[in-house]
Design a protein that fits this description.
The protein is of the alpha+beta class. The chain is built from 17 helices and 17 strands. It is rod-shaped, with a radius of gyration of 48 Å.
Length: 563
Protein backbone atom coordinates (compact mmCIF):
# COMPACT_ATOMS: atom_id res chain seq x y z
CA UNK A 1 0.00 0.00 0.00
CA UNK A 2 1.47 3.33 -1.05
CA UNK A 3 1.49 6.13 1.47
CA UNK A 4 1.37 8.80 -1.23
CA UNK A 5 -1.23 7.24 -3.56
CA UNK A 6 -4.40 5.32 -2.72
CA UNK A 7 -7.49 4.22 -4.65
CA UNK A 8 -11.03 4.31 -3.27
CA UNK A 9 -14.26 2.84 -4.63
CA UNK A 10 -17.46 4.81 -3.94
CA UNK A 11 -20.58 2.61 -4.18
CA UNK A 12 -24.12 3.94 -4.59
CA UNK A 13 -26.51 1.00 -4.17
CA UNK A 14 -29.87 2.12 -5.57
CA UNK A 15 -33.21 0.41 -5.97
CA UNK A 16 -32.69 -0.71 -9.56
CA UNK A 17 -28.99 -0.09 -10.26
CA UNK A 18 -25.61 -0.10 -8.52
CA UNK A 19 -23.20 2.67 -9.46
CA UNK A 20 -19.52 2.82 -8.64
CA UNK A 21 -16.83 5.50 -8.97
CA UNK A 22 -13.17 4.49 -8.60
CA UNK A 23 -10.88 7.42 -7.89
CA UNK A 24 -7.26 7.87 -6.92
CA UNK A 25 -6.15 10.17 -4.12
CA UNK A 26 -2.68 11.50 -3.36
CA UNK A 27 -1.02 14.53 -1.82
CA UNK A 28 -1.20 16.12 -5.28
CA UNK A 29 -5.02 15.84 -5.57
CA UNK A 30 -7.56 13.30 -6.83
CA UNK A 31 -8.73 11.99 -10.18
CA UNK A 32 -11.51 9.65 -11.39
CA UNK A 33 -10.20 6.40 -12.87
CA UNK A 34 -13.36 4.52 -13.76
CA UNK A 35 -17.17 4.53 -13.39
CA UNK A 36 -19.51 1.57 -13.77
CA UNK A 37 -23.24 0.85 -13.53
CA UNK A 38 -24.94 -2.52 -13.10
CA UNK A 39 -28.67 -3.43 -12.85
CA UNK A 40 -29.80 -5.04 -9.61
CA UNK A 41 -30.87 -8.69 -9.76
CA UNK A 42 -34.08 -9.40 -7.82
CA UNK A 43 -34.84 -12.61 -5.92
CA UNK A 44 -37.95 -14.70 -6.38
CA UNK A 45 -40.11 -15.27 -3.35
CA UNK A 46 -38.86 -18.79 -2.95
CA UNK A 47 -35.60 -18.77 -1.05
CA UNK A 48 -32.49 -19.39 -3.10
CA UNK A 49 -34.07 -18.71 -6.53
CA UNK A 50 -32.89 -15.63 -8.35
CA UNK A 51 -34.38 -13.77 -11.26
CA UNK A 52 -32.17 -12.20 -13.87
CA UNK A 53 -32.54 -8.53 -14.65
CA UNK A 54 -34.61 -9.36 -17.75
CA UNK A 55 -36.93 -11.71 -15.85
CA UNK A 56 -37.67 -9.32 -13.02
CA UNK A 57 -40.94 -7.42 -13.14
CA UNK A 58 -42.41 -4.34 -11.56
CA UNK A 59 -44.76 -6.44 -9.48
CA UNK A 60 -41.82 -8.32 -8.02
CA UNK A 61 -40.31 -5.06 -6.84
CA UNK A 62 -43.54 -4.22 -5.06
CA UNK A 63 -43.74 -7.54 -3.21
CA UNK A 64 -43.02 -7.51 0.51
CA UNK A 65 -40.01 -9.78 0.84
CA UNK A 66 -38.84 -10.89 4.25
CA UNK A 67 -36.02 -8.88 5.82
CA UNK A 68 -33.73 -11.88 5.46
CA UNK A 69 -34.42 -12.13 1.73
CA UNK A 70 -33.82 -8.42 1.25
CA UNK A 71 -30.38 -8.66 2.86
CA UNK A 72 -29.51 -11.79 0.90
CA UNK A 73 -30.41 -9.95 -2.28
CA UNK A 74 -28.32 -6.93 -1.23
CA UNK A 75 -25.28 -9.07 -0.37
CA UNK A 76 -25.48 -11.01 -3.62
CA UNK A 77 -25.77 -7.89 -5.80
CA UNK A 78 -23.05 -5.83 -4.17
CA UNK A 79 -20.56 -8.72 -4.23
CA UNK A 80 -21.48 -9.37 -7.84
CA UNK A 81 -20.84 -5.72 -8.68
CA UNK A 82 -17.45 -5.55 -6.97
CA UNK A 83 -16.23 -8.90 -8.32
CA UNK A 84 -17.37 -8.02 -11.86
CA UNK A 85 -15.74 -4.60 -12.16
CA UNK A 86 -13.39 -3.95 -9.20
CA UNK A 87 -12.12 -7.32 -7.87
CA UNK A 88 -8.78 -5.92 -6.68
CA UNK A 89 -10.06 -2.91 -4.74
CA UNK A 90 -9.73 -2.83 -0.95
CA UNK A 91 -10.85 0.66 0.13
CA UNK A 92 -14.55 1.46 -0.01
CA UNK A 93 -16.87 4.41 0.60
CA UNK A 94 -20.51 3.43 0.87
CA UNK A 95 -23.63 5.55 0.47
CA UNK A 96 -26.56 4.83 2.79
CA UNK A 97 -30.10 5.33 1.40
CA UNK A 98 -31.92 8.25 3.01
CA UNK A 99 -35.25 6.38 3.02
CA UNK A 100 -33.70 3.87 5.46
CA UNK A 101 -32.45 6.66 7.76
CA UNK A 102 -34.22 9.07 10.10
CA UNK A 103 -33.66 12.72 9.14
CA UNK A 104 -34.29 15.38 11.79
CA UNK A 105 -33.99 19.18 11.96
CA UNK A 106 -33.02 20.42 15.43
CA UNK A 107 -32.75 23.78 17.14
CA UNK A 108 -30.21 23.65 19.98
CA UNK A 109 -29.40 26.28 22.56
CA UNK A 110 -26.08 27.85 21.63
CA UNK A 111 -23.16 25.75 22.82
CA UNK A 112 -19.48 25.20 22.22
CA UNK A 113 -19.07 23.89 18.61
CA UNK A 114 -16.66 21.23 19.89
CA UNK A 115 -19.42 19.83 22.11
CA UNK A 116 -22.06 19.62 19.36
CA UNK A 117 -21.23 16.01 18.27
CA UNK A 118 -21.91 14.92 21.86
CA UNK A 119 -25.04 17.08 22.31
CA UNK A 120 -26.82 16.32 19.00
CA UNK A 121 -27.64 12.62 19.73
CA UNK A 122 -29.30 13.48 23.07
CA UNK A 123 -31.28 16.34 21.49
CA UNK A 124 -32.48 14.03 18.69
CA UNK A 125 -33.39 11.09 20.96
CA UNK A 126 -36.84 12.47 21.79
CA UNK A 127 -37.90 12.42 18.14
CA UNK A 128 -36.50 8.97 17.31
CA UNK A 129 -38.56 5.75 17.54
CA UNK A 130 -35.77 3.85 19.33
CA UNK A 131 -33.17 4.32 22.02
CA UNK A 132 -29.65 5.65 21.54
CA UNK A 133 -28.25 2.37 22.84
CA UNK A 134 -28.78 0.86 19.40
CA UNK A 135 -28.73 4.02 17.29
CA UNK A 136 -26.06 6.28 15.83
CA UNK A 137 -26.76 9.97 15.19
CA UNK A 138 -24.62 12.36 13.16
CA UNK A 139 -25.34 16.02 12.44
CA UNK A 140 -23.87 19.32 11.29
CA UNK A 141 -24.70 22.92 12.05
CA UNK A 142 -26.11 24.86 9.09
CA UNK A 143 -27.01 28.19 10.68
CA UNK A 144 -27.76 30.11 13.86
CA UNK A 145 -30.41 32.58 14.96
CA UNK A 146 -30.18 34.67 18.13
CA UNK A 147 -29.13 32.17 20.82
CA UNK A 148 -30.02 28.95 18.95
CA UNK A 149 -28.05 26.73 16.57
CA UNK A 150 -29.84 24.99 13.68
CA UNK A 151 -28.69 21.44 13.00
CA UNK A 152 -29.55 18.81 10.39
CA UNK A 153 -28.93 15.25 11.58
CA UNK A 154 -29.24 11.65 10.32
CA UNK A 155 -29.89 8.61 12.52
CA UNK A 156 -29.43 4.91 11.79
CA UNK A 157 -29.67 1.74 13.82
CA UNK A 158 -26.45 -0.16 14.49
CA UNK A 159 -27.81 -3.35 12.99
CA UNK A 160 -28.57 -1.65 9.66
CA UNK A 161 -25.04 -0.19 9.46
CA UNK A 162 -23.41 -3.54 10.19
CA UNK A 163 -25.49 -5.37 7.58
CA UNK A 164 -24.81 -2.65 5.03
CA UNK A 165 -21.03 -2.96 5.25
CA UNK A 166 -20.85 -6.72 5.91
CA UNK A 167 -20.52 -7.86 2.24
CA UNK A 168 -17.54 -5.53 1.72
CA UNK A 169 -15.52 -6.63 4.72
CA UNK A 170 -12.81 -9.24 4.33
CA UNK A 171 -9.21 -9.68 5.46
CA UNK A 172 -7.75 -7.02 3.16
CA UNK A 173 -10.64 -4.55 2.80
CA UNK A 174 -11.65 -1.51 4.82
CA UNK A 175 -14.54 0.95 4.88
CA UNK A 176 -13.46 4.58 4.85
CA UNK A 177 -16.80 6.40 4.65
CA UNK A 178 -20.49 5.79 5.43
CA UNK A 179 -22.42 8.80 4.20
CA UNK A 180 -26.16 9.36 3.56
CA UNK A 181 -26.90 9.65 -0.17
CA UNK A 182 -28.57 13.04 0.37
CA UNK A 183 -25.37 14.38 2.02
CA UNK A 184 -23.37 13.00 -0.94
CA UNK A 185 -25.74 14.76 -3.35
CA UNK A 186 -25.08 17.98 -1.42
CA UNK A 187 -21.30 17.52 -1.88
CA UNK A 188 -21.84 17.06 -5.63
CA UNK A 189 -23.26 20.59 -5.93
CA UNK A 190 -20.46 21.88 -3.71
CA UNK A 191 -17.83 20.61 -6.14
CA UNK A 192 -19.43 22.12 -9.26
CA UNK A 193 -20.00 25.74 -8.25
CA UNK A 194 -17.04 27.98 -7.25
CA UNK A 195 -19.56 30.42 -5.72
CA UNK A 196 -21.20 27.61 -3.73
CA UNK A 197 -21.01 29.29 -0.31
CA UNK A 198 -22.84 32.40 -1.58
CA UNK A 199 -25.78 30.76 -3.39
CA UNK A 200 -28.95 28.82 -2.56
CA UNK A 201 -30.08 25.64 -4.23
CA UNK A 202 -32.84 23.06 -4.37
CA UNK A 203 -31.66 19.57 -5.33
CA UNK A 204 -34.06 16.90 -6.56
CA UNK A 205 -32.71 13.42 -7.28
CA UNK A 206 -35.44 11.23 -8.82
CA UNK A 207 -34.53 7.61 -8.22
CA UNK A 208 -36.37 4.39 -8.99
CA UNK A 209 -38.35 4.12 -5.76
CA UNK A 210 -37.49 7.32 -3.86
CA UNK A 211 -36.80 10.97 -4.57
CA UNK A 212 -34.28 12.99 -2.54
CA UNK A 213 -35.05 16.65 -1.88
CA UNK A 214 -32.26 18.88 -0.54
CA UNK A 215 -32.24 22.55 0.42
CA UNK A 216 -28.79 24.17 0.39
CA UNK A 217 -28.50 27.55 2.08
CA UNK A 218 -25.31 29.65 2.15
CA UNK A 219 -23.20 26.63 1.32
CA UNK A 220 -24.77 24.36 3.99
CA UNK A 221 -27.27 21.51 3.80
CA UNK A 222 -30.18 22.94 5.81
CA UNK A 223 -33.05 20.61 4.85
CA UNK A 224 -33.40 17.10 3.41
CA UNK A 225 -36.31 14.75 2.77
CA UNK A 226 -36.80 11.36 1.12
CA UNK A 227 -40.05 11.09 -0.86
CA UNK A 228 -41.41 7.58 -1.47
CA UNK A 229 -42.17 8.23 -5.11
CA UNK A 230 -39.97 7.74 -8.15
CA UNK A 231 -39.42 6.28 -11.59
CA UNK A 232 -40.83 2.84 -10.77
CA UNK A 233 -44.21 4.39 -10.04
CA UNK A 234 -44.22 5.86 -13.54
CA UNK A 235 -43.11 2.56 -15.06
CA UNK A 236 -46.02 0.80 -13.37
CA UNK A 237 -48.46 3.36 -14.80
CA UNK A 238 -47.17 3.16 -18.39
CA UNK A 239 -46.44 -0.62 -18.48
CA UNK A 240 -49.77 -1.45 -20.25
CA UNK A 241 -48.95 1.00 -23.06
CA UNK A 242 -45.75 -0.89 -23.92
CA UNK A 243 -47.27 -4.33 -23.28
CA UNK A 244 -44.27 -5.27 -21.13
CA UNK A 245 -43.53 -6.03 -17.48
CA UNK A 246 -39.75 -5.75 -17.82
CA UNK A 247 -38.81 -2.50 -16.04
CA UNK A 248 -35.52 -2.13 -17.97
CA UNK A 249 -37.26 -2.39 -21.33
CA UNK A 250 -39.92 0.11 -20.19
CA UNK A 251 -37.21 2.45 -18.89
CA UNK A 252 -35.33 2.31 -22.20
CA UNK A 253 -38.42 3.05 -24.29
CA UNK A 254 -39.58 5.76 -21.91
CA UNK A 255 -36.32 7.69 -22.13
CA UNK A 256 -36.09 7.36 -25.91
CA UNK A 257 -39.37 9.25 -26.45
CA UNK A 258 -39.65 13.03 -26.60
CA UNK A 259 -42.45 13.82 -24.18
CA UNK A 260 -43.37 17.48 -24.59
CA UNK A 261 -44.91 17.93 -21.14
CA UNK A 262 -44.64 21.71 -21.07
CA UNK A 263 -46.81 22.36 -24.16
CA UNK A 264 -50.36 21.33 -24.94
CA UNK A 265 -50.21 21.05 -28.72
CA UNK A 266 -46.84 19.95 -29.99
CA UNK A 267 -46.59 18.95 -33.66
CA UNK A 268 -44.82 15.66 -34.17
CA UNK A 269 -43.36 14.44 -37.46
CA UNK A 270 -45.38 11.40 -38.64
CA UNK A 271 -42.14 9.47 -39.27
CA UNK A 272 -41.37 9.78 -35.55
CA UNK A 273 -44.08 7.23 -34.67
CA UNK A 274 -42.61 4.70 -37.06
CA UNK A 275 -39.08 5.23 -35.76
CA UNK A 276 -40.13 4.71 -32.14
CA UNK A 277 -42.58 1.85 -32.88
CA UNK A 278 -45.47 3.62 -31.20
CA UNK A 279 -48.82 4.88 -32.42
CA UNK A 280 -50.01 8.45 -32.09
CA UNK A 281 -52.80 7.32 -29.75
CA UNK A 282 -50.35 5.46 -27.50
CA UNK A 283 -48.02 8.45 -27.43
CA UNK A 284 -50.85 10.80 -26.42
CA UNK A 285 -51.95 8.35 -23.72
CA UNK A 286 -48.37 8.00 -22.51
CA UNK A 287 -47.99 11.77 -22.40
CA UNK A 288 -51.07 12.14 -20.21
CA UNK A 289 -49.92 9.44 -17.80
CA UNK A 290 -46.47 10.99 -17.49
CA UNK A 291 -48.09 14.35 -16.75
CA UNK A 292 -50.17 12.74 -14.00
CA UNK A 293 -47.04 11.18 -12.51
CA UNK A 294 -45.00 14.39 -12.78
CA UNK A 295 -47.81 16.44 -11.24
CA UNK A 296 -48.05 14.06 -8.30
CA UNK A 297 -44.27 14.21 -7.86
CA UNK A 298 -44.39 18.03 -7.82
CA UNK A 299 -47.13 17.94 -5.17
CA UNK A 300 -45.04 15.64 -2.98
CA UNK A 301 -42.06 17.95 -3.40
CA UNK A 302 -44.19 20.98 -2.58
CA UNK A 303 -45.49 19.31 0.60
CA UNK A 304 -41.95 18.47 1.70
CA UNK A 305 -40.83 22.06 1.13
CA UNK A 306 -43.45 23.34 3.58
CA UNK A 307 -40.99 22.62 6.39
CA UNK A 308 -38.26 24.75 4.81
CA UNK A 309 -37.91 28.42 3.93
CA UNK A 310 -37.56 28.48 0.16
CA UNK A 311 -37.83 31.69 -1.84
CA UNK A 312 -38.71 31.97 -5.51
CA UNK A 313 -35.17 33.03 -6.41
CA UNK A 314 -33.56 29.66 -5.68
CA UNK A 315 -32.41 27.40 -8.52
CA UNK A 316 -33.58 23.80 -8.67
CA UNK A 317 -31.17 21.16 -10.00
CA UNK A 318 -32.44 17.80 -11.26
CA UNK A 319 -30.59 14.48 -11.15
CA UNK A 320 -31.30 10.76 -10.97
CA UNK A 321 -32.51 8.41 -13.70
CA UNK A 322 -36.07 9.79 -13.52
CA UNK A 323 -34.87 13.27 -14.41
CA UNK A 324 -33.81 12.10 -17.90
CA UNK A 325 -37.41 12.15 -19.19
CA UNK A 326 -37.64 14.74 -21.98
CA UNK A 327 -39.55 17.81 -20.92
CA UNK A 328 -39.70 16.95 -17.22
CA UNK A 329 -37.54 19.91 -16.22
CA UNK A 330 -39.91 22.41 -17.90
CA UNK A 331 -42.91 20.74 -16.31
CA UNK A 332 -41.43 20.92 -12.79
CA UNK A 333 -40.43 24.54 -13.36
CA UNK A 334 -44.02 25.32 -14.37
CA UNK A 335 -45.53 23.43 -11.41
CA UNK A 336 -43.21 24.66 -8.62
CA UNK A 337 -42.51 28.15 -10.02
CA UNK A 338 -38.80 27.53 -9.48
CA UNK A 339 -36.14 27.85 -12.22
CA UNK A 340 -34.87 24.34 -13.08
CA UNK A 341 -31.29 23.75 -14.28
CA UNK A 342 -29.16 20.81 -15.31
CA UNK A 343 -25.80 19.97 -13.80
CA UNK A 344 -22.84 20.84 -16.03
CA UNK A 345 -20.70 18.07 -17.49
CA UNK A 346 -18.40 16.47 -14.92
CA UNK A 347 -16.52 13.83 -16.90
CA UNK A 348 -16.50 12.41 -20.42
CA UNK A 349 -18.76 9.41 -20.54
CA UNK A 350 -21.67 7.98 -22.51
CA UNK A 351 -23.55 7.65 -19.22
CA UNK A 352 -25.57 10.76 -18.30
CA UNK A 353 -24.11 12.63 -15.34
CA UNK A 354 -27.55 12.73 -13.70
CA UNK A 355 -27.33 8.99 -12.99
CA UNK A 356 -24.00 9.39 -11.18
CA UNK A 357 -24.76 12.53 -9.16
CA UNK A 358 -24.87 10.75 -5.78
CA UNK A 359 -21.85 8.54 -6.52
CA UNK A 360 -19.79 11.52 -7.68
CA UNK A 361 -20.96 13.42 -4.63
CA UNK A 362 -19.75 10.54 -2.46
CA UNK A 363 -16.31 10.93 -4.00
CA UNK A 364 -16.33 14.68 -3.26
CA UNK A 365 -17.56 14.00 0.29
CA UNK A 366 -14.51 11.80 0.92
CA UNK A 367 -12.27 14.80 0.20
CA UNK A 368 -13.97 17.11 2.72
CA UNK A 369 -12.33 17.81 6.10
CA UNK A 370 -13.75 15.76 9.00
CA UNK A 371 -15.53 18.71 10.55
CA UNK A 372 -17.76 19.03 7.44
CA UNK A 373 -18.47 15.34 6.77
CA UNK A 374 -21.66 13.40 7.48
CA UNK A 375 -19.85 10.16 8.31
CA UNK A 376 -21.33 7.37 10.43
CA UNK A 377 -17.82 6.01 10.93
CA UNK A 378 -16.86 9.20 12.74
CA UNK A 379 -18.73 8.07 15.87
CA UNK A 380 -17.91 5.82 18.84
CA UNK A 381 -19.80 2.95 17.20
CA UNK A 382 -18.25 3.64 13.79
CA UNK A 383 -14.77 3.55 15.31
CA UNK A 384 -15.31 -0.12 16.20
CA UNK A 385 -16.05 -0.89 12.53
CA UNK A 386 -12.88 0.61 11.06
CA UNK A 387 -10.19 -1.02 13.19
CA UNK A 388 -8.57 -2.30 10.01
CA UNK A 389 -8.73 1.05 8.30
CA UNK A 390 -5.34 2.55 7.55
CA UNK A 391 -5.89 6.30 7.68
CA UNK A 392 -3.42 8.31 5.66
CA UNK A 393 -4.52 11.48 7.47
CA UNK A 394 -2.86 10.18 10.67
CA UNK A 395 0.45 10.39 8.86
CA UNK A 396 -0.39 13.67 7.14
CA UNK A 397 1.73 16.00 9.39
CA UNK A 398 4.98 14.02 9.04
CA UNK A 399 4.27 13.41 5.36
CA UNK A 400 3.73 17.12 4.76
CA UNK A 401 6.91 17.93 6.69
CA UNK A 402 8.83 15.28 4.74
CA UNK A 403 7.46 16.60 1.44
CA UNK A 404 8.35 20.18 2.38
CA UNK A 405 11.84 19.09 3.46
CA UNK A 406 12.28 17.20 0.20
CA UNK A 407 11.22 20.28 -1.79
CA UNK A 408 13.68 22.45 0.18
CA UNK A 409 16.45 19.88 -0.32
CA UNK A 410 15.83 19.63 -4.06
CA UNK A 411 15.63 23.41 -4.38
CA UNK A 412 18.90 23.93 -2.49
CA UNK A 413 20.53 21.13 -4.51
CA UNK A 414 19.47 22.73 -7.80
CA UNK A 415 20.51 26.19 -6.63
CA UNK A 416 23.89 24.75 -5.54
CA UNK A 417 24.40 23.24 -9.00
CA UNK A 418 23.57 26.58 -10.64
CA UNK A 419 25.92 28.43 -8.29
CA UNK A 420 28.72 25.90 -8.86
CA UNK A 421 28.33 26.17 -12.62
CA UNK A 422 28.55 29.95 -12.34
CA UNK A 423 31.73 29.67 -10.26
CA UNK A 424 33.22 27.19 -12.75
CA UNK A 425 32.55 29.59 -15.62
CA UNK A 426 34.16 32.43 -13.64
CA UNK A 427 37.13 30.19 -12.80
CA UNK A 428 37.63 29.30 -16.47
CA UNK A 429 37.41 32.99 -17.36
CA UNK A 430 40.10 33.83 -14.78
CA UNK A 431 42.32 31.01 -16.06
CA UNK A 432 42.10 32.35 -19.61
CA UNK A 433 42.89 35.87 -18.43
CA UNK A 434 45.96 34.70 -16.47
CA UNK A 435 47.12 32.52 -19.36
CA UNK A 436 47.43 35.60 -21.57
CA UNK A 437 50.47 36.65 -19.49
CA UNK A 438 52.23 33.27 -19.65
CA UNK A 439 54.64 32.95 -22.61
CA UNK A 440 54.00 29.99 -24.88
CA UNK A 441 50.31 29.54 -24.01
CA UNK A 442 47.45 30.07 -26.46
CA UNK A 443 44.21 31.58 -25.00
CA UNK A 444 42.21 29.41 -27.42
CA UNK A 445 43.03 26.26 -25.47
CA UNK A 446 40.49 24.73 -23.11
CA UNK A 447 40.82 25.47 -19.41
CA UNK A 448 41.98 21.89 -18.72
CA UNK A 449 44.60 22.17 -21.45
CA UNK A 450 45.79 25.55 -20.13
CA UNK A 451 46.28 24.06 -16.65
CA UNK A 452 48.16 21.10 -18.11
CA UNK A 453 50.51 23.32 -20.18
CA UNK A 454 51.05 25.65 -17.21
CA UNK A 455 52.11 22.66 -15.09
CA UNK A 456 54.65 21.69 -17.77
CA UNK A 457 56.11 25.24 -17.86
CA UNK A 458 56.31 25.40 -14.06
CA UNK A 459 57.96 21.98 -13.97
CA UNK A 460 60.52 23.10 -16.54
CA UNK A 461 61.37 26.26 -14.59
CA UNK A 462 61.60 24.22 -11.39
CA UNK A 463 64.07 21.86 -13.01
CA UNK A 464 66.15 24.82 -14.21
CA UNK A 465 66.19 26.28 -10.72
CA UNK A 466 67.62 23.01 -9.34
CA UNK A 467 70.68 23.01 -11.69
CA UNK A 468 74.10 24.44 -10.80
CA UNK A 469 73.14 27.73 -12.45
CA UNK A 470 72.55 30.77 -10.34
CA UNK A 471 69.04 30.93 -8.96
CA UNK A 472 66.74 33.88 -9.59
CA UNK A 473 66.56 34.87 -5.93
CA UNK A 474 70.40 34.92 -5.66
CA UNK A 475 70.58 37.14 -8.73
CA UNK A 476 67.95 39.50 -7.42
CA UNK A 477 69.81 39.74 -4.12
CA UNK A 478 73.07 40.52 -5.93
CA UNK A 479 71.34 43.08 -8.14
CA UNK A 480 69.95 44.85 -5.10
CA UNK A 481 73.50 45.10 -3.78
CA UNK A 482 74.85 46.44 -7.09
CA UNK A 483 72.23 49.14 -7.40
CA UNK A 484 73.40 52.23 -5.47
CA UNK A 485 71.11 53.81 -2.88
CA UNK A 486 68.61 56.47 -4.03
CA UNK A 487 70.56 59.31 -2.41
CA UNK A 488 73.51 58.48 -4.69
CA UNK A 489 71.71 57.78 -7.94
CA UNK A 490 68.12 58.17 -9.15
CA UNK A 491 67.10 54.84 -10.70
CA UNK A 492 63.84 53.16 -11.68
CA UNK A 493 63.91 49.36 -12.11
CA UNK A 494 61.79 48.39 -15.14
CA UNK A 495 62.26 44.69 -15.82
CA UNK A 496 64.39 41.62 -15.16
CA UNK A 497 64.64 38.36 -17.13
CA UNK A 498 66.80 35.31 -16.58
CA UNK A 499 67.17 32.31 -18.87
CA UNK A 500 69.86 29.66 -18.32
CA UNK A 501 72.60 32.10 -17.26
CA UNK A 502 71.72 34.97 -19.59
CA UNK A 503 70.42 38.03 -17.76
CA UNK A 504 68.72 41.11 -19.08
CA UNK A 505 67.97 44.16 -16.88
CA UNK A 506 66.15 47.31 -17.95
CA UNK A 507 66.48 50.49 -15.82
CA UNK A 508 65.69 54.19 -16.19
CA UNK A 509 68.41 56.67 -15.11
CA UNK A 510 68.58 60.41 -14.75
CA UNK A 511 71.47 60.98 -17.20
CA UNK A 512 73.96 59.27 -19.55
CA UNK A 513 76.67 59.67 -16.94
CA UNK A 514 74.63 57.67 -14.45
CA UNK A 515 74.37 54.89 -17.01
CA UNK A 516 78.16 54.60 -17.24
CA UNK A 517 78.45 54.66 -13.44
CA UNK A 518 75.85 51.86 -13.22
CA UNK A 519 77.79 49.85 -15.85
CA UNK A 520 80.93 50.16 -13.73
CA UNK A 521 79.09 48.78 -10.72
CA UNK A 522 78.22 45.61 -12.69
CA UNK A 523 81.76 45.16 -13.94
CA UNK A 524 83.13 45.32 -10.39
CA UNK A 525 80.78 42.56 -9.22
CA UNK A 526 82.33 39.09 -9.29
CA UNK A 527 79.06 37.32 -10.04
CA UNK A 528 78.42 38.95 -13.43
CA UNK A 529 80.46 38.76 -16.65
CA UNK A 530 80.19 40.01 -20.18
CA UNK A 531 78.33 43.13 -19.05
CA UNK A 532 77.19 45.09 -22.08
CA UNK A 533 74.78 47.88 -22.95
CA UNK A 534 72.23 46.31 -25.32
CA UNK A 535 70.14 49.40 -25.89
CA UNK A 536 70.18 52.97 -24.68
CA UNK A 537 67.20 55.33 -25.23
CA UNK A 538 67.13 59.06 -24.46
CA UNK A 539 63.75 60.08 -23.02
CA UNK A 540 62.09 63.54 -23.52
CA UNK A 541 62.88 64.63 -19.96
CA UNK A 542 66.62 63.97 -20.50
CA UNK A 543 66.33 60.67 -18.65
CA UNK A 544 67.93 57.59 -20.11
CA UNK A 545 66.43 54.10 -20.42
CA UNK A 546 69.18 51.48 -20.63
CA UNK A 547 69.02 47.71 -21.23
CA UNK A 548 72.03 45.80 -19.83
CA UNK A 549 72.91 42.22 -20.72
CA UNK A 550 75.35 39.96 -18.90
CA UNK A 551 75.69 36.38 -17.74
CA UNK A 552 77.00 34.27 -14.87
CA UNK A 553 78.26 31.19 -16.67
CA UNK A 554 81.97 32.13 -16.62
CA UNK A 555 82.41 32.30 -12.85
CA UNK A 556 81.28 28.91 -11.55
CA UNK A 557 83.44 29.11 -8.46
CA UNK A 558 81.70 32.32 -7.48
CA UNK A 559 78.30 30.76 -8.08
CA UNK A 560 79.19 27.86 -5.82
CA UNK A 561 80.17 30.22 -3.05
CA UNK A 562 76.91 32.16 -3.51
CA UNK A 563 74.90 29.03 -3.05
Amino acid sequence: MSLLRQKYLVIDYGTSCIRGILYERSIFGSKILRCEILPVVFFQKSKGEKASSNESSISQKKENFSEETVWEQYEYNIQRFVESFFPDEENFALLLPSHRLHIRSLSIVEADPKELPRIIPFEAEESLPFSLDHTEVIGREWGSFEDHIHVLCFASQHEFIKKRIHPLLHDRSSIHLLVPDSAALFSFARALDPEFSKNHYLQVNIGASHTILNVIENGNLSFSRSISYGGNDLNEIIAPIFNSSDPYEIEKKKLSLKLYLHTKDEKVDPSYYQQKSISKKSLVSLLEKVKIWATHLCREMDRSLLGSKVSDSWNLYLSGGGSLIHGLDQWIEYQLKQPVKRYPAFFNSDIPIEQFACALGGKEHCLLPDRKKFDFLDTPFGATLKKRVFQLKLFAPPLYIAAASLCILLTSFIMGIIKDQSQIRQFEKNIRKISEGIPGLSPNLSSDRILLETKKICRKHLQNSRRNDTRSLVLLKELSQVIPPIEEMFLTFRSFSYNEGDIEVEVELRSVGDSNTFLGKFNKNELFSKVEVKRRTILPNQHVRVVYTFNTTQKSEVLSSCK
